[in-house]
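Hypothesis: this fold can be encoded by more than one sequence.
Test: take the structure tokens below, design a sequence, compare later.
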């Protein structure tokens, strides 16, 4: 028998996980619809349901608001009346919502097993070691007292644990999303000579390259190697230090897939999420966040043909529901599915809602107080940068 290797996320969080009770398994869709509607009506304005674009249709149809991480983060403070915020997404999103929420609000992730493999690729202990090694290399230097300029500004993608965000916030850094990544890099380079960007090397590389930073001025820091596997000279010469992390969904897209689609559909426009590898972003016509992708397809004339490189639930929704008069193909004919997003089911949502009606809160996400302040500082900076 093969033993399953637990991720850091699973080790940290699954001991708190309350599994779905058996009585919520195997319910008919019509029954779930009726019971969810009843529970929502009972809870009224005490409740808001947020749904990330990568959620499956059976869940997203219940969301009061849909969006990417950035847009959903904004919804938290826009709903001070909501006592319960149900976040249909993954763990790091619910953590950010908890940090941005008011003390009287409770954030719930319907299934605590909904983590993110990219987020798991940057652990707080590894970042502490990285920072210490950068200091030993003589890269960190001292903050300029007159200008406040630092040698290295840490920037973390929102797809990271609260502890990583707190680390960045405490050291003059910031959180970014795929919607504001370029503006965030500009913000950080105004405050420091170099940026340490984590955990997604592809978002960092694609964004910086589009801003005119050559690949030769970027290095990849391997957290599993001494000194990141780099020499001090290489780090000194870099403007961008990229953490060796990636999204296991978006790195499945290839240049070959783009070539095949272009051969099959003359006139097709290829649009990808910036978590794809650099060569794929270069082969595409456009690159941007999920909101950007939706906006571009929406603005295109009927009959337009698109090849889209992002998670399959959003691609299918664009094709079938949002714009049936545009032709939308996934770059990957088998579809790239985020298996952790998929863990949230309507059955979990029903269980959570009926629990709230009965006065029981399951699967609440609470960021420890020790991390809250600096995580909020980093997230608040993110919300000011567009
Ligand atoms: S699509 Fe990638 S980055 Fe987004 S939640 Fe899934 S694994 Fe994480």
């Amino acid at each position: 028998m093969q033993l399953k290797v637990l991720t850091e996320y699973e080790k940290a969080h699954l001991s708190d996980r309350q599994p779905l009770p058996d009585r919520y398994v195997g319910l008919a869709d019509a029954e779930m619809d009726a019971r969810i509607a009843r529970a929502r009506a009972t809870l009224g304005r005490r409740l808001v349901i947020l749904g990330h674009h990568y959620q499956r249709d059976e869940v997203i149809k219940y969301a009061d608001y849909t969006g990417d991480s950035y847009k959903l983060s904004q919804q938290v403070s826009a709903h001070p009346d909501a006592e319960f915020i149900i976040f249909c997404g993954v763990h790091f999103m619910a953590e950010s919502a908890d940090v941005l929420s008011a003390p009287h609000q409770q954030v719930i992730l319907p299934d605590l097993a909904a983590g993110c493999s990219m987020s798991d690729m940057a652990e707080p202990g590894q970042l502490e070691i990285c920072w210490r090694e950068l200091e030993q290399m003589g890269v960190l230097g001292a903050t300029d007292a007159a200008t406040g300029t630092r040698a290295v500004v840490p920037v973390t993608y929102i797809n990271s644990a609260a502890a990583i965000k707190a680390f960045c916030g405490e050291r003059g850094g910031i959180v970014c999303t795929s919607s504001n990544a370029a503006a965030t890099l500009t913000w950080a380079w105004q405050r420091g000579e170099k940026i340490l960007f984590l955990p997604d090397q592809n978002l960092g590389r694609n964004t910086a390259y589009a801003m005119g930073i050559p690949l030769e001025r970027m290095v990849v820091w391997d957290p599993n190697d001494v000194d990141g596997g780099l020499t001090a000279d290489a780090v000194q010469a870099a403007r961008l230090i990229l953490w060796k992390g990636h999204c296991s969904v978006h790195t499945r897209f290839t240049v070959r897939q783009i070539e095949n689609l272009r051969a099959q559909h003359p006139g097709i426009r290829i649009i990808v999420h910036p978590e794809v590898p650099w060569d794929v972003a270069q082969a595409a016509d456009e690159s941007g966040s999920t909101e950007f992708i939706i906006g571009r397809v929406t603005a295109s004339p009927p009959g337009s043909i698109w090849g889209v490189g992002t998670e399959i639930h959003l691609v299918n929704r664009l094709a079938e529901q949002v714009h049936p008069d545009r032709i939308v193909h996934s770059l990957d004919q088998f579809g790239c599915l985020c298996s952790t997003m998929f863990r949230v089911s309507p059955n979990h949502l029903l269980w959570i809602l009926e629990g709230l009606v009965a006065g029981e809160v399951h699967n609440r996400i609470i960021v420890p107080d020790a991390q809250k302040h600096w995580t909020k500082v980093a997230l608040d900076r993110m919300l000011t940068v567009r």
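Confidence is low (pLDDT under 50) at residues 1-6. The pocket of iron/sulfur cluster is lined by residues 54, 90, 116-118, 159, 247-249, 311, 338, 340-341 (CB under 6 Å).
Hypothesis status: open.
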